[in-house]
Write a structure and sequence with these properties.
single chain; 130 residues; mainly beta; OB fold (Dihydrolipoamide Acetyltransferase, E2P); 10% helix; NA-bd_OB-fold; Replication protein A 70 kDa DNA-binding subunit B/D first OB fold domain-containing protein
Length: 130
Amino acid sequence: MARPFEKIVDINETKELWKVAVKVHHKWTVISNNREHIELIFIDVDISGADFHVIVPTALKITFDSVLLVNNTYTVMNFLPQINDLMFKTSKHPYVIRFTVGTRVSDINKYEIPGKKLNFKPFAEIISGN
């Protein structure tokens, strides 16, 4: 029997066997110490438009770079949630998702997931450190 889909808002670090239906909202490459990895923002199939920050490590970049495209939808399974302690947060979600060698991506463009409206912080909050 297939595992049911879970909502992004429910993701926490209690397990690694998650299954979510998502849309790639943003994607960028990060270069650090002459190594590249991918970072993305996924949005949930849920109507609330929940999102989370995703990190695809250097070792898995080649595997997922050509598969994960902006505005495409996917089923993503088996990833590692970690506390979102990034200095610059791209999501309000308390966790970031790190792909592992066990992560699976399938069902390309099987879902209808609307885009997410951008909600920028006011400059005053950024300057004050909020």
